[in-house]
Write a structure and sequence with these properties.
Blueprint: H1 13-17, E1 21-27, H2 34-43, H3 62-65, H4 82-93, H5 99-115, E2 118-125, H6 137-153, E3 158-166, H7 171-183, E4 189-195, H8 198-201, H9 205-217, E5 221-226, H10 232-241, E6 246-249, H11 257-265, E7 269-272, H12 274-279, H13 291-296, E8 301-303, H14 308-311, H15 315-326, H16 330-343, H17 348-362
Parallel strand pairs: 1-2, 2-3, 3-4, 4-5, 5-6, 6-7, 7-8
Helix pairs in contact: 5-6, 7-9, 9-10, 16-17
The structure holds zinc ion (ZN).
Zinc ion binds near residues 27, 195 and 225.
Length: about 375
Amino acid sequence: MSFPSALPVRIDETEIRALPKAEVHVHLEGSFALVDLLELAKQNRVALPGPAATLFDISTHDAFSSPAVTTGGGAGAGSAGLTGFLRFLDWQCGLVRTREQAARVAYAFAARQSASGIRYSDVIVNPTHWNTWHGRELDLLDALTGGFDDAQSDGLCIANIAYSLLRTQGATEAEDIVRAVTGARARRVVALSVDGDEKVAGRTGERFRDAFGLAAASGLHRTVHAGESSGPDGVWDALDLLQAERIDHGVRAIEDPALVQRLVDEDISLGVCPRSNVTLGIYRSWPEHPLPQLLAAGIRVTLNTDDPATMGTTLEADWAVAAEQFGFTRDDLVGFARRSIEASFADDDLRRDLLAELVDVAGSPEDPRPAEAE
Ligand SMILES: [Zn+2]
Protein backbone atom coordinates (compact mmCIF):
# COMPACT_ATOMS: atom_id res chain seq x y z
CA MET A 1 0.00 0.00 0.00
CA SER A 2 1.08 3.58 -0.38
CA PHE A 3 0.43 6.71 1.58
CA PRO A 4 -0.75 9.77 -0.29
CA SER A 5 0.93 12.87 1.06
CA ALA A 6 -0.48 15.67 3.15
CA LEU A 7 -4.14 14.76 3.22
CA PRO A 8 -5.91 17.06 5.66
CA VAL A 9 -7.51 14.26 7.67
CA ARG A 10 -6.87 12.76 11.06
CA ILE A 11 -4.34 10.00 10.59
CA ASP A 12 -5.79 6.62 11.42
CA GLU A 13 -3.92 4.40 13.87
CA THR A 14 -4.31 1.45 11.49
CA GLU A 15 -2.23 3.29 8.91
CA ILE A 16 0.39 4.13 11.52
CA ARG A 17 0.60 0.50 12.57
CA ALA A 18 1.26 -0.43 8.93
CA LEU A 19 4.49 1.60 8.85
CA PRO A 20 7.58 -0.53 9.55
CA LYS A 21 9.38 1.24 12.38
CA ALA A 22 11.56 0.95 15.45
CA GLU A 23 11.10 2.17 18.99
CA VAL A 24 14.28 3.27 20.72
CA HIS A 25 13.11 4.79 24.01
CA VAL A 26 10.93 2.27 25.78
CA HIS A 27 11.41 0.61 29.17
CA LEU A 28 10.64 -3.04 29.75
CA GLU A 29 9.62 -2.01 33.27
CA GLY A 30 6.94 0.24 31.78
CA SER A 31 5.53 -2.33 29.39
CA PHE A 32 3.80 -4.89 31.60
CA ALA A 33 0.26 -5.56 30.41
CA LEU A 34 -2.43 -5.51 33.09
CA VAL A 35 -3.41 -9.10 32.35
CA ASP A 36 0.19 -10.23 32.83
CA LEU A 37 0.49 -8.32 36.10
CA LEU A 38 -2.66 -9.96 37.42
CA GLU A 39 -1.36 -13.39 36.46
CA LEU A 40 2.03 -12.77 38.08
CA ALA A 41 0.40 -11.54 41.29
CA LYS A 42 -1.79 -14.62 41.34
CA GLN A 43 1.14 -16.99 40.73
CA ASN A 44 3.11 -15.37 43.55
CA ARG A 45 0.09 -15.02 45.87
CA VAL A 46 0.75 -11.31 46.18
CA ALA A 47 -2.16 -8.98 46.98
CA LEU A 48 -2.79 -6.15 44.56
CA PRO A 49 -2.14 -2.67 45.98
CA GLY A 50 -5.55 -1.54 44.74
CA PRO A 51 -8.42 -2.47 42.44
CA ALA A 52 -7.32 -4.04 39.14
CA ALA A 53 -9.24 -1.41 37.20
CA THR A 54 -7.06 1.36 38.64
CA LEU A 55 -3.81 -0.57 39.06
CA PHE A 56 -1.90 1.78 36.74
CA ASP A 57 -3.39 4.84 38.45
CA ILE A 58 -0.65 4.92 41.05
CA SER A 59 -1.95 8.07 42.68
CA THR A 60 -4.73 5.93 44.13
CA HIS A 61 -2.35 3.59 45.99
CA ASP A 62 -1.13 4.75 49.36
CA ALA A 63 1.68 2.22 49.18
CA PHE A 64 3.14 3.98 46.15
CA SER A 65 2.19 7.59 46.63
CA SER A 66 3.65 8.21 50.08
CA PRO A 67 6.63 10.54 50.06
CA ALA A 68 9.95 8.70 50.07
CA VAL A 69 13.33 8.76 48.42
CA THR A 70 13.03 7.30 44.97
CA THR A 71 14.89 4.13 44.14
CA GLY A 72 15.13 4.32 40.42
CA GLY A 73 13.85 5.62 37.16
CA GLY A 74 11.84 4.09 34.38
CA ALA A 75 10.83 7.41 32.99
CA GLY A 76 13.03 9.50 35.23
CA ALA A 77 11.04 12.69 35.38
CA GLY A 78 10.54 15.27 38.04
CA SER A 79 6.95 15.74 39.13
CA ALA A 80 5.11 15.06 42.34
CA GLY A 81 3.98 11.73 40.85
CA LEU A 82 7.43 10.40 40.13
CA THR A 83 8.12 8.75 43.46
CA GLY A 84 4.92 6.75 43.28
CA PHE A 85 5.58 5.90 39.65
CA LEU A 86 9.03 4.49 40.41
CA ARG A 87 7.81 2.58 43.44
CA PHE A 88 5.12 1.01 41.29
CA LEU A 89 7.78 -0.18 38.83
CA ASP A 90 9.69 -1.78 41.72
CA TRP A 91 6.54 -3.50 42.93
CA GLN A 92 5.55 -4.96 39.56
CA CYS A 93 9.07 -6.06 38.61
CA GLY A 94 9.30 -7.73 42.02
CA LEU A 95 6.54 -10.07 40.84
CA VAL A 96 8.91 -11.57 38.26
CA ARG A 97 10.72 -14.27 40.21
CA THR A 98 11.48 -17.19 37.91
CA ARG A 99 13.29 -17.56 34.60
CA GLU A 100 10.04 -18.62 32.99
CA GLN A 101 8.27 -15.51 34.24
CA ALA A 102 11.08 -13.26 33.01
CA ALA A 103 11.07 -14.93 29.61
CA ARG A 104 7.30 -14.52 29.38
CA VAL A 105 7.56 -10.81 30.19
CA ALA A 106 10.14 -10.43 27.41
CA TYR A 107 8.00 -12.36 24.94
CA ALA A 108 4.93 -10.30 25.85
CA PHE A 109 6.90 -7.11 25.27
CA ALA A 110 7.84 -8.23 21.75
CA ALA A 111 4.23 -9.19 21.04
CA ARG A 112 3.04 -5.80 22.29
CA GLN A 113 5.54 -3.99 20.06
CA SER A 114 4.54 -6.09 17.06
CA ALA A 115 0.92 -5.10 17.53
CA SER A 116 2.02 -1.49 16.95
CA GLY A 117 3.94 -2.38 13.79
CA ILE A 118 7.26 -1.99 15.61
CA ARG A 119 9.74 -4.29 13.94
CA TYR A 120 12.73 -3.57 16.15
CA SER A 121 13.23 -2.17 19.66
CA ASP A 122 16.15 -1.16 21.77
CA VAL A 123 14.45 -1.90 25.09
CA ILE A 124 15.83 -0.35 28.26
CA VAL A 125 16.19 -2.75 31.18
CA ASN A 126 17.17 -1.42 34.61
CA PRO A 127 17.84 -4.48 36.80
CA THR A 128 17.71 -2.41 40.00
CA HIS A 129 13.90 -2.53 39.74
CA TRP A 130 13.88 -6.35 39.59
CA ASN A 131 14.50 -6.86 43.27
CA THR A 132 14.37 -10.66 43.34
CA TRP A 133 17.26 -10.73 40.83
CA HIS A 134 19.73 -8.58 42.75
CA GLY A 135 23.11 -10.29 42.57
CA ARG A 136 21.82 -12.38 39.65
CA GLU A 137 21.50 -9.65 37.06
CA LEU A 138 23.24 -11.72 34.37
CA ASP A 139 20.71 -14.51 34.97
CA LEU A 140 17.92 -11.99 34.48
CA LEU A 141 19.46 -10.84 31.20
CA ASP A 142 19.80 -14.46 30.09
CA ALA A 143 16.17 -15.24 30.91
CA LEU A 144 14.94 -12.13 29.11
CA THR A 145 17.14 -12.98 26.15
CA GLY A 146 15.49 -16.40 25.95
CA GLY A 147 12.08 -14.74 25.76
CA PHE A 148 13.27 -12.34 23.06
CA ASP A 149 14.78 -15.30 21.14
CA ASP A 150 11.44 -17.14 21.20
CA ALA A 151 9.62 -14.01 20.08
CA GLN A 152 11.98 -13.47 17.17
CA SER A 153 11.61 -17.12 16.17
CA ASP A 154 7.86 -16.55 16.07
CA GLY A 155 8.29 -13.56 13.76
CA LEU A 156 7.62 -10.92 16.41
CA CYS A 157 9.46 -7.66 17.05
CA ILE A 158 13.22 -8.08 17.36
CA ALA A 159 14.42 -6.67 20.69
CA ASN A 160 17.88 -5.85 21.95
CA ILE A 161 18.68 -4.62 25.44
CA ALA A 162 20.03 -1.29 26.62
CA TYR A 163 21.30 -2.15 30.10
CA SER A 164 20.48 0.79 32.30
CA LEU A 165 22.44 1.97 35.28
CA LEU A 166 20.53 3.70 38.04
CA ARG A 167 21.54 7.33 38.40
CA THR A 168 22.05 6.94 42.16
CA GLN A 169 24.48 4.02 41.80
CA GLY A 170 28.14 4.62 42.57
CA ALA A 171 31.01 4.89 40.11
CA THR A 172 32.70 1.64 41.12
CA GLU A 173 29.46 -0.31 41.06
CA ALA A 174 28.68 1.04 37.60
CA GLU A 175 32.11 0.05 36.29
CA ASP A 176 31.77 -3.44 37.80
CA ILE A 177 28.41 -3.84 36.05
CA VAL A 178 29.87 -2.90 32.69
CA ARG A 179 32.78 -5.30 33.17
CA ALA A 180 30.40 -8.12 34.14
CA VAL A 181 28.05 -7.55 31.21
CA THR A 182 30.78 -7.20 28.62
CA GLY A 183 32.83 -10.02 30.16
CA ALA A 184 29.85 -12.36 29.91
CA ARG A 185 29.26 -11.23 26.33
CA ALA A 186 25.59 -11.03 27.24
CA ARG A 187 23.68 -11.63 24.03
CA ARG A 188 21.25 -8.91 22.92
CA VAL A 189 22.85 -6.34 25.23
CA VAL A 190 23.83 -3.70 22.70
CA ALA A 191 24.02 -0.53 24.78
CA LEU A 192 24.69 1.03 28.15
CA SER A 193 22.05 3.42 29.46
CA VAL A 194 21.51 5.47 32.59
CA ASP A 195 18.13 6.56 33.91
CA GLY A 196 16.56 7.73 37.14
CA ASP A 197 15.63 11.05 38.63
CA GLU A 198 18.20 13.69 37.77
CA LYS A 199 16.73 16.01 40.39
CA VAL A 200 17.42 13.49 43.16
CA ALA A 201 20.88 12.46 41.97
CA GLY A 202 22.16 15.81 40.72
CA ARG A 203 24.80 16.01 37.98
CA THR A 204 26.27 12.52 37.62
CA GLY A 205 28.27 12.83 34.41
CA GLU A 206 31.65 12.64 36.13
CA ARG A 207 30.52 9.70 38.26
CA PHE A 208 29.67 7.56 35.23
CA ARG A 209 32.38 8.77 32.87
CA ASP A 210 34.60 5.71 33.34
CA ALA A 211 31.70 3.23 33.14
CA PHE A 212 30.60 4.69 29.81
CA GLY A 213 34.21 4.80 28.68
CA LEU A 214 34.51 1.08 29.39
CA ALA A 215 31.26 0.46 27.53
CA ALA A 216 32.50 2.36 24.48
CA ALA A 217 35.82 0.53 24.53
CA SER A 218 33.94 -2.78 24.64
CA GLY A 219 31.81 -1.91 21.64
CA LEU A 220 28.59 -1.09 23.49
CA HIS A 221 26.47 1.79 22.26
CA ARG A 222 25.58 4.60 24.70
CA THR A 223 22.21 6.19 25.35
CA VAL A 224 21.60 8.56 28.24
CA HIS A 225 18.49 9.97 29.94
CA ALA A 226 19.03 13.71 30.14
CA GLY A 227 17.35 17.01 29.51
CA GLU A 228 14.13 15.90 31.16
CA SER A 229 14.24 16.47 34.91
CA SER A 230 17.61 18.12 34.26
CA GLY A 231 18.05 21.12 32.02
CA PRO A 232 20.50 21.48 29.13
CA ASP A 233 23.42 20.81 31.53
CA GLY A 234 22.45 17.14 31.68
CA VAL A 235 22.62 16.86 27.90
CA TRP A 236 25.98 18.65 27.71
CA ASP A 237 27.34 16.19 30.30
CA ALA A 238 25.96 13.22 28.37
CA LEU A 239 27.80 14.38 25.26
CA ASP A 240 31.00 15.64 26.88
CA LEU A 241 31.46 12.97 29.55
CA LEU A 242 29.48 9.87 28.61
CA GLN A 243 30.07 9.59 24.85
CA ALA A 244 26.31 9.47 24.33
CA GLU A 245 25.19 8.51 20.82
CA ARG A 246 21.54 9.11 21.67
CA ILE A 247 19.75 11.12 24.31
CA ASP A 248 16.59 9.76 25.92
CA HIS A 249 14.21 12.73 26.17
CA GLY A 250 16.65 15.64 25.74
CA VAL A 251 13.70 17.95 25.19
CA ARG A 252 15.06 20.73 27.38
CA ALA A 253 17.97 21.10 24.96
CA ILE A 254 15.63 23.53 23.20
CA GLU A 255 16.47 26.04 25.96
CA ASP A 256 20.10 26.29 24.79
CA PRO A 257 20.77 27.28 21.14
CA ALA A 258 24.43 26.22 21.33
CA LEU A 259 23.36 22.79 22.50
CA VAL A 260 20.79 22.50 19.72
CA GLN A 261 23.56 23.28 17.22
CA ARG A 262 25.81 20.64 18.80
CA LEU A 263 23.06 18.00 18.50
CA VAL A 264 22.55 18.90 14.85
CA ASP A 265 26.27 19.02 14.03
CA GLU A 266 26.97 15.63 15.63
CA ASP A 267 23.71 14.06 14.45
CA ILE A 268 22.73 13.04 17.99
CA SER A 269 19.16 11.78 18.04
CA LEU A 270 16.66 12.54 20.77
CA GLY A 271 14.26 9.80 21.87
CA VAL A 272 11.34 12.08 22.61
CA CYS A 273 8.23 10.92 24.53
CA PRO A 274 5.64 13.73 24.71
CA ARG A 275 2.97 11.80 26.57
CA SER A 276 5.44 10.80 29.28
CA ASN A 277 6.61 14.41 29.64
CA VAL A 278 3.06 15.66 29.99
CA THR A 279 2.00 12.84 32.31
CA LEU A 280 4.98 13.42 34.61
CA GLY A 281 4.65 17.19 34.55
CA ILE A 282 7.66 18.33 32.48
CA TYR A 283 5.20 20.21 30.25
CA ARG A 284 1.64 21.03 31.14
CA SER A 285 0.07 19.97 27.85
CA TRP A 286 0.85 18.60 24.40
CA PRO A 287 0.66 22.05 22.75
CA GLU A 288 3.36 23.29 25.14
CA HIS A 289 5.72 20.44 24.22
CA PRO A 290 8.75 21.55 22.13
CA LEU A 291 8.63 18.60 19.71
CA PRO A 292 7.89 20.84 16.68
CA GLN A 293 10.69 23.24 17.60
CA LEU A 294 13.19 20.39 18.01
CA LEU A 295 12.24 19.08 14.57
CA ALA A 296 12.38 22.52 12.99
CA ALA A 297 15.88 22.99 14.42
CA GLY A 298 16.99 20.01 12.37
CA ILE A 299 17.61 17.58 15.22
CA ARG A 300 17.11 13.89 14.45
CA VAL A 301 14.03 13.34 16.63
CA THR A 302 12.27 10.03 17.20
CA LEU A 303 8.82 9.70 18.75
CA ASN A 304 8.47 7.09 21.50
CA THR A 305 6.25 6.00 24.40
CA ASP A 306 8.77 5.62 27.29
CA ASP A 307 6.47 3.47 29.47
CA PRO A 308 3.48 2.55 27.30
CA ALA A 309 1.57 0.26 29.65
CA THR A 310 2.04 2.44 32.70
CA MET A 311 1.08 5.49 30.65
CA GLY A 312 -1.92 3.63 29.23
CA THR A 313 -0.94 4.16 25.62
CA THR A 314 0.50 2.64 22.46
CA LEU A 315 2.97 4.01 19.97
CA GLU A 316 0.34 4.36 17.25
CA ALA A 317 -1.95 6.24 19.64
CA ASP A 318 0.83 8.66 20.55
CA TRP A 319 1.79 9.22 16.90
CA ALA A 320 -1.86 9.91 16.07
CA VAL A 321 -2.14 12.41 18.94
CA ALA A 322 1.11 14.07 17.88
CA ALA A 323 -0.18 14.36 14.31
CA GLU A 324 -3.39 15.90 15.54
CA GLN A 325 -1.76 18.25 18.04
CA PHE A 326 1.09 19.42 15.81
CA GLY A 327 -0.41 19.05 12.35
CA PHE A 328 1.93 16.29 11.20
CA THR A 329 1.12 14.77 7.82
CA ARG A 330 1.54 11.16 6.79
CA ASP A 331 4.87 12.12 5.26
CA ASP A 332 5.95 13.50 8.60
CA LEU A 333 5.05 10.20 10.26
CA VAL A 334 6.96 8.29 7.58
CA GLY A 335 9.90 10.53 8.52
CA PHE A 336 9.50 9.50 12.16
CA ALA A 337 9.45 5.85 11.09
CA ARG A 338 12.59 6.29 9.00
CA ARG A 339 14.49 8.14 11.73
CA SER A 340 13.48 5.52 14.29
CA ILE A 341 15.12 2.82 12.19
CA GLU A 342 18.19 4.94 11.43
CA ALA A 343 18.66 5.89 15.09
CA SER A 344 18.25 2.35 16.36
CA PHE A 345 21.12 0.14 17.47
CA ALA A 346 19.96 -2.65 15.15
CA ASP A 347 22.79 -4.06 13.08
CA ASP A 348 23.44 -2.61 9.64
CA ASP A 349 21.73 -5.43 7.74
CA LEU A 350 18.53 -5.21 9.75
CA ARG A 351 18.39 -1.42 9.48
CA ARG A 352 18.89 -1.64 5.73
CA ASP A 353 16.15 -4.28 5.42
CA LEU A 354 13.69 -2.28 7.53
CA LEU A 355 14.39 0.91 5.61
CA ALA A 356 13.75 -0.97 2.36
CA GLU A 357 10.47 -2.27 3.75
CA LEU A 358 9.50 1.24 4.75
CA VAL A 359 10.18 2.46 1.21
CA ASP A 360 8.00 -0.36 -0.13
CA VAL A 361 5.14 0.71 2.12
CA ALA A 362 5.51 4.47 2.08
CA GLY A 363 7.65 5.49 -0.85
CA SER A 364 11.25 6.57 -1.26
CA PRO A 365 12.75 8.88 1.37
CA GLU A 366 13.87 11.18 -1.47
CA ASP A 367 10.36 11.34 -2.79
CA PRO A 368 8.15 13.30 -2.27
CA ARG A 369 10.49 15.54 -0.33
CA PRO A 370 14.00 15.55 1.12
CA ALA A 371 14.66 14.25 4.61
CA GLU A 372 16.09 17.56 5.83
CA ALA A 373 12.74 19.23 5.21
CA GLU A 374 11.20 17.31 8.10
ZN1 LIG B 1 12.76 6.78 29.73
